[in-house]
Design brief:
The chain is an all-alpha fold. The chain contains 7 helices and no strands. Helices cover 81% and strands 0% of the residues. The termini are far apart. The mean pLDDT is 96.
Length: 138
Amino acid sequence: MDTALNAYREIVELHRRAGDTAALASALTELAVTSQRAGDPGAGLAAVTEAVALYGRLYYPDPGPHGREVARTFLVYAECLRRSGRPADAVAPLMNALGMARDAADDGIAEACRSALQLASAADPEGVRAAVDRFLGT
């Protein structure tokens, strides 16, 4: 796993130096996934937080043809939050990812969002319910 982490860190730095924002965001997302798998959700959270910010600058408010990629990044962000002990904070990125996945007609990401929301709710039922209510404005 260390080899994969080092490879993604190197890829991140290459894209950062090249100034390729979209490729950097994608590489940061992969670094986050690999960090989670290595048991370090904190490092994953740092990487994917930057990826979300980059995608926000590139594609907000409409990711257009990049919706699937951005949705996956939001899903990874939510999972890092949940695995870092912040399940209620995962709600907004999950709901956003779910909307983008539906717009992109990606049933796989949409189902992963629903599953992640159930896991978050199991970890903190009241906090997640309140976060859903805030997100929906109810």
